[in-house]
Amino acid sequence: MKEKLITFEIAKLAKEKGFNWPVNFYWYNNKPNDWHESDNDYLFNENEESDHISRPTQSLLQKWLREVKNCDVLTQINTIDMTGPKYYAHVSFDRNPLIHSDMTGYGDSYEAVFEVGLLLALQILNETK
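Structure (tokenized):
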């Protein structure tokens, strides 16, 4: 299974929040339709003035949120009906039940709902940190 890369919108927000782990994929010249792959992992978000934006996988961004920002982003099956499974994302900070969101991004695709959870986590960082 190939890991899903995050969207341009989420990558820009992750850079603003301080994401700077080495990755192979990046956007060139801050353009959403111009992404590239590097032969080696590189710190594309090394400084704010850089024209490049790191494009990590969903799971790498999730790991960074957990290890650096104490934020858990989980996607789980909520129900299974005639059309298939339905997923939801759960976001929590510092294991604090008062700072979280349930049933975020309810939908049919694990990856799409996970992306919504990652976006919400980065947006909540503005409000809580």
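Residues 8-128 form one domain. The two ends are 34 Å apart (CA to CA).
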